[in-house]
Each structure stands twice: as C-alpha cells, then as structure tokens.
Amino acid sequence: MTEREVRVRFAPSPTGPLHIGGVRTALYNYLLARKLGGKMLLRIEDTDQNRFVPGAENYILEALAWCGIVIDEGVGPGGPHAPYRQSERKPMYKQYADQLIASGHAYYAFDTPEELDTMRARLQAAKVPNPQYNSITRAQMRNSLTLPEDEVKQLLDGGAPYVIRLKVPRKEEVRFQDLIRGWVVVHSSAIDDKVLMKSDGMPTYHLANIVDDHLMEISHVIRGEEWLPSAPLHVLLYRYLGWESTMPQFAHLPLLLKPDGTGKLSKRDGDKLGFPVFPLEWHGLDGETGEPTVSRGYREDGYLPEAFINFLAFLGWNPGSQQEIFSMDELIAAFSIERVSKSPARFDQNKVKWYNEHYLRAKSNAELAPYLLAALTEHGIACSQEKAEQIVGVMKERVSFPKDFWQEAKYFFQAPDSYDEQVISKKWNPQVAAALVAYADALPSAAEPTAEGLKGLFTQTMEAQGLKTGQVLQALRVAVTGAGAGPDLFETLVILGTEEVATRLRTAVTALG
Ligand code: GLU
C-alpha cells in the first residue's frame, strides 16, 4: 500500500473570535502537516446558521495570517474540493443521509418540539439521569421505525417536517485508537441517535464533518478534547458509510486551563483574569445586551507573533529537551503528536510575557525603531531613525512590549517635570547639587561625547569635588531623567547630548535646591 498523503484540516465554526485554544489546534495541525510534507486545509463549518457571526470568518483568516499559519487549501486559497464553506456545500450532504437510510443505519423522525419535550419530561419524572432519543426511547416516538410504511410515505410526500437521525445500535462497543490517548472504548448505549439532517435540509455538524473529511481525503483529525465524546459517533458514521478503511486518525488535544488550574479557560475569562484569550482584538456585540464590546487581543496588546506561537506550542506539547525557544521552522522540525500530552495544560501569563521579552530583545534596533517612531509621530515629536535606533538599543533589555518604548523613553524627548522622591530624599544634598553643577560646567569640555568619555569626566569632576561617584550617580540620573532607574546612564547622556544634559542638571538644581 502506498503511504497516504498527509492532509489535515482546521475546521472552525464562525461563531465569534477564535479563542487561543482554537489557534493552538490550528498550530498543531499546521506543524504536523509541514513536518510530514502534507497539506493544511481550512474549512469553515457554518451549518448552524443561528450561531453565525458576521466578521468571524475574516477574523479567523487574519488571525491565522498574523500567526504565520499558512493555509494550503480551503477558504482563502481555494482548491480542488471547493467550496470549503459548509453552507455552500449544502446540496452535497443529503445523498449520504439517504444512503444511511437505505442501508438501515438512519431513519426519519417526525416528532414535534412539543413531543420531544414530553418525552424528556416523562424520562425525567422516571428519574432517568440523561434523557435521550436513543435505541430505547425511539420505540415510543414518531419515526420511520415505529410508523407504518405507508404513513411514513404519506408524511414525506405531504411535506411534513422531519429530521434524519442515526440509528445507533443498542449494545455494541465502539473503539478507536486516538494518537494521544491510546484506545478509546465507548459503549453504544452512551451515544444517542444524533440528528444528521435538520428539518431545514441543513446537515448537522456531525454529518457534514464526516462527509467533508472523507471527500477532502483528510488523513488526521487533530482537534480539541471537547470533541472526544463525539468521536465514537463519528466512527460509527465512517463505518456505516463504508469509509472505515480510509477513516482519518484521531488526535484529541488536552484542555487549556485557567492559570490557577480551576477549570477550562473560556472565552469570557480574558476580561476577568486580565489577559487576552484572543489572538486579535475583537469588536463584537454583547450576547445579552446587544451593546458593542471590545475584547483584547495579543496583537494589540503588543505581543509579537513569534512569541505568541512559541508560547502556544508549549501549551500541551514539549520537545523532551530543555530548549524553550523555537522559531516556527524549529517547531516544525521538533514537533510530533507523540509528545503531545494527555493532561490539561495550564495557561501561564508570565510565560507568554517572558517569550515576548525574549523575541523583542532578539530583534535588531532597526527593526524596533519603527515602534518608537510611530508613537513619537502620534505625539508630534520629530526624531531621526538613527536616534530612535540608539534609544531602543539601550531600552530593549528593560521593556516587555514595543509600546513600552515610548512610555519608558519619554525623557529622551521631554525634560522631567518631576523627580523620583525616594531617591531625592536619600541622595540629594547641597554638596551633591554643587557637584552636579560642576559636571554641567565641565560637559562642554568633554573631549569625547561617548559613554566612556562622559563617565571619565564624571569621575574626575567628582574627585575634584571630594566625592565618590557612588554618592552622586543616582542623583545624576534623577536630575536628568526624573526616574530612579533606567538603562545605562552614560549611554543615556550620550543620546541626550551634552548640552541638553547640562541644561537639565541646572534646571534640577534650581528646582531641588
Ligand atoms: N467546527 C468544529 C469546531 O468549531 C470542528 C470540530 C472538528 O475539528 O471536528 O470546533
């Protein structure tokens, strides 16, 4: 037998912004596809029109592009199995439901919503823990298994509303091998007679998903753990449709937990826990009030996509070594489904920040300068590319996000209007003030306006004043920048220029006495 081509799919439903768990699913699919030389598909599962949210599909495409997850086939690039939106594939599914009816694996059900409610109420009253339409209850309902054949025909011919349900066997073990969890065995009594076709002629998720995975020749289904309970039903569908020999391999990814491990990280947690749960900012409407809402995104919060992806890759997978920093190409080379964990992964806010700091510092000054320049333009401040590069160069060890450059580097453009009080109360005195004036006087004579040169001049001046540099250094920093801490002080003075430093020193001495 020839090796099967690896074809994986990311199959989100456009019901809102993509949660980071969804991005992780897309990422693992992508890593496996690239690692094994296969294809990554994007299919939009929009059969549930009630949950359709405008803008969600675009959001998904934009988020994947920002993350560097490239779609080979599907919504976006197109491909031989187009269309890739299930709503546009609607006419394709009916024949498979009909096939299941013809082979006795599915049936028509004519029950009205009221009849279904009555059935549930009756079962609840009888203390049945989980009332379901299944191999036992179906015998009391109005369907093509209980009604006489001619009545069924009459109903169908007369256009009576119906759904098509899968006829799940009563006593059978359904088993399949999950690439992450090993053998999964479920008794068919735990599976209900799921609806495959709705009364509006739309397939449900279950039917459409199996038909499409089959037609699109998907080799691996990698998805979140929340789909594990549906997998036995999907196995039955493959079997009854005669597709079991090409059934994809399943891999159900571990849950993502809140940082404290108390439960699943949900779409609503981001706002409550103070970090984004979406890759990009989302502008939506509140489900209850209909008011416009904005949910934070990693991109807008200043995370670099490399950091976000590196962090996500480790939420449920590890390379089996100490290495923590992986570019996308390195992830592709190192990834394997075998190293994906069964146990849930805890979200770690500090870790994603740590990754961001790492990737930020790894960037060249020329790459980082535009972030500062953009903020300066916004504030109407002119600055050369060269100066911006110098500033981000001294600042990058001290910031976590590109937007911090402006906040932290303001004093390069604006003289301080206040001085760190703690430092002043401990380090400022008339002798120090006089020494700083002496330094201001000496600055124009600095032979070399380099960090080394200005430091040498400072040491000399302090010696002449009878002071040790350690007694004045902090006061010098506060007088020039206003802040008690910052990047290398003499580098800072070089960037500011000796004239500006001298002016600021005199202003500080006048202000502080
Ligand atoms: N449409 C499903 C979702 O939104 C896809 C599940 C699957 O991958 O089979 O998660």
Description of the structure:
With 513 residues, the protein is α/β, with parallel strands linked by helices. Among the domains are: 89-197, Glutamyl-tRNA Synthetase, domain 3 (Alpha-Beta Complex), CATH 3.90.800; 364-411, Orthogonal Bundle (Helicase, Ruva Protein, domain 3), CATH 1.10.8; 421-512, Arc Repressor Mutant, subunit A. It is built from 20 helices and 14 strands. The protein has helices spanning 20-35, 56-67, 90-102, 113-125, 149-157, 205-215, 231-240, 269-273, 305-313, 328-334, 349-362, 365-378, 385-395, 404-409, 421-427, 430-442, 451-464, 469-481, 489-496, 498-512, and strands at 7-10, 39-42, 73-74, 106-109, 163-166, 173-178, 182-187, 195-197, 220-224, 249-253, 256-257, 282-285, 292-295, 345-346. The strands form six sheets. A three-stranded parallel sheet has the order 1-2-3. The chain has a three-stranded antiparallel sheet with strand order 4-5-8. Strand 9, helix 7 (231-240) and strand 10 (249-253) form a beta-alpha-beta unit. Helix 16 (430-442) crosses helix 18. It is elongated. The model has no long low-confidence stretch (mean pLDDT 96). It binds glutamic acid. GO terms for molecular function: glutamate-tRNA ligase activity. Its main location: cytoplasm. ATP binds at residue 267. Residues 5-273, 297-354 form the Glutamyl/glutaminyl-tRNA synthetase class Ib catalytic domain. Residues 372-508 form the Aminoacyl-tRNA synthetase class I anticodon-binding domain.
